[in-house]
TrEMBL record, chain A:
Pfam families: ABC2_membrane_2. It comes from Sporolactobacillus shoreae. GO terms for cellular component: plasma membrane. GO terms for molecular function: ABC-type transporter activity. It comes from the Bacteria. This is Uncharacterized protein. The lineage of its organism: Bacteria, Bacillati, Bacillota, Bacilli, Bacillales. Keywords: Membrane, Transmembrane, Transmembrane helix. The chain crosses the membrane at residues 32-55, 61-79, 108-133, 153-174, 186-205, 217-240.
TrEMBL record, chain B:
This is ABC transporter ATP-binding protein. It comes from the Bacteria. Keywords: ATP-binding, Nucleotide-binding, Transport. One of its GO terms (molecular function) is ATP binding. Residues 6-229 form the ABC transporter domain. InterPro entries: AAA+_ATPase, ABC_transporter-like_ATP-bd, ABC_Transporter_VariousFunc, P-loop_NTPase.
Length: 246, 232
């Protein structure tokens, strides 16, 4: 087929990785970005200095930040679909000479890239925080810093493992909202709530959080989540193809 | 001997109780410029969405370029969607690069030539463009493609007179030397009627009147006058 090859899919992927703002939304100037960055940095430095000098801080708890990153990816993924409609670009997107599967796959991969960037930024900032806290605190040693870094690998790895499911879920819900199957959204959330409660009541999430888990069960859960992500992407492309409400 | 590029046979499409397309039968000839006209809700945009596979008919048969419309046929169709906007974070130059990489048949050199003709700044991001500039950019994205079928859904919607003139000039310039089929829906009939070879009037999702533009002009004075009569 004319023009539809891997090279053009790369171009589509590059297009999807570009950050798209809501059309008509005023852009924040570079100066304001700088002001916010300086404010954030100063607040982090002051708080870290204060707590490091006044208390013996348990640095490993800062890794809890990581549990939020997959949900950020989830939100971005819903927005990735919603913005096509909101910005009036949906006609261009859906009239591209690519199968619905490729269109969804490009958005999914773009979300994975964004998630990876977010995780890397979070990882770097947390390490910097740990290094600074260790440097100024009299109660923290180099050994504490090593333990702190080692305690971060699991949440980071789980973050990366959770991205496919949360990105797939976000894209699916974004598409579902624009389809004639929109009412099924409520059913989906009920099902999701039941599943979440079930896992919570078994103490499964708490176990993973505290580092008490069966590696085999965890690996199986990750693989199942990836299969679920694939099914969600297939369902999304099917909805785009057959059940779109345009 | 003319050859059909679009054949619609008794196609229908409804949204709930609203019948958007109602047993529409129509043939569009290859190489012609056809105006699809009619009031709001006549079914023009739905018909165009069907041509590009965005919407499927509930019943009937639609053939575009000899196939059922879908993403495969879209490689040969340049489509300007109704009420479309362009991605705000792209400059015109970046948009043309995007077109070169993603849209089959897109010619960047032709796009640059048309941008100059339409006085479109290349380094300005779309979010900083006026509505008229953005409309010109989107039109270039369509007419700088060497594809057999161009479908323009309300390309002048919300555009001021001077931008409209530039767009029409560029349109005439772009299609005059190519053997492309152009389908255009517009309410600005007065300004574009000289472009049209054929005219189709839609009403309530069905063909109200169709014919050769020249013959209709002879009979009714102008397509614009005819459209006013049809609206009565």
């Amino acid at each position: 087929m004319q023009g539809i090859n891997n090279q053009s899919f790369d171009a589509l992927l590059r297009h999807e990785t570009r950050r798209v703002r809501k059309n008509g939304k005023p852009r924040m100037s570079r100066q304001w970005w700088m002001i916010y960055a300086i404010f954030f940095l100063a607040a982090a430095l002051i708080l870290t200095t204060y707590f490091s000098l006044s208390y013996h801080i348990e640095m490993k708890y800062i890794w809890s930040v990581c549990w939020g990153i997959p949900w950020v990816v989830f939100g971005f993924s819903i927005g990735k679909i919603r913005r096509e409609w909101g910005n009036g670009t949906v006609g261009w997107w859906l009239a591209l000479p690519y199968s619905r599967w490729r269109l969804i796959a490009a958005k999914f991969l773009a979300m994975m890239v964004r998630g990876l960037c977010l995780a890397l930024i979070a990882f770097t900032l947390i390490i910097l925080f740990g290094a600074y806290a260790t440097l100024i605190s009299s109660s923290l040693s180099l050994h504490d810093f090593q333990i702190f870094i080692l305690s971060g690998w699991l949440p980071m790895l789980l973050d990366l493992a959770a991205f496919p499911l949360l990105a797939g879920l976000g894209l699916f819900l974004g598409v579902l909202r624009q389809s004639t199957w929109r009412p099924a959204g409520i059913l989906f959330w009920v099902f999701w709530g039941i599943l979440w409660s079930l896992f919570s009541s078994t103490g499964w999430f708490q176990g993973v959080y505290n580092g008490r888990y069966d590696p085999l069960a965890l690996s199986a859960a990750v693989i199942i989540s990836w299969i679920a992500a694939l099914l969600l992407l297939l369902l999304s492309s099917w909805l785009l193809d057959k059940k779109l409400d345009l | 001997m003319t050859e059909p590029i679009i054949i619609a046979e008794q196609i229908s499409k409804s949204y709930g109780r609203k019948q958007a397309i109602d047993h529409l039968s129509l043939t569009i000839e290859k190489g012609s410029v056809t105006g699809i006209l009619g009031g709001n809700g006549a079914g023009k945009s739905t018909f165009f969405r069907m041509i590009t596979g965005l919407v499927r008919p509930d019943s009937g048969r639609l053939t575009v370029l000899g196939e059922e419309p879908g993403w495969r046929t879209n490689s040969q169709i340049a489509y300007l969607p109704d009420r479309a906007r362009w991605y705000g974070n792209y400059t015109a130059e970046q948009t043309f690069d995007w077109g070169s990489n993603i849209l089959p048949g897109f010619e960047k050199s032709e796009a640059l030539r048309l941008a100059e003709l339409m006085n479109l700044p290349l380094d300005l991001k779309t979010e900083g463009m006026s509505k008229g500039q953005e409309a010109r950019l989107m039109l270039i994205l369509c007419i700088a493609r060497s594809v057999p079928l161009i479908v323009l859904d309300e390309p002048f919607s919300g555009i001021d007179g001077s931008s409209r003139e530039r767009i029409i000039e560029a349109l005439i310039d772009a299609i005059s030397e190519k053997e492309q089929t152009l389908l255009i829906s517009t309410h600005e009939i007065y300004e574009v009627e000289g472009l049209m070879d054929d005219v189709v009037f839609l009403k309530d999702g069905a063909v109200q009147l169709t014919g050769n533009a020249e013959k209709l002009r002879t009979e009714y004075g102008s397509i614009y006058d005819l459209s006013k009569k049809m609206g009565d």
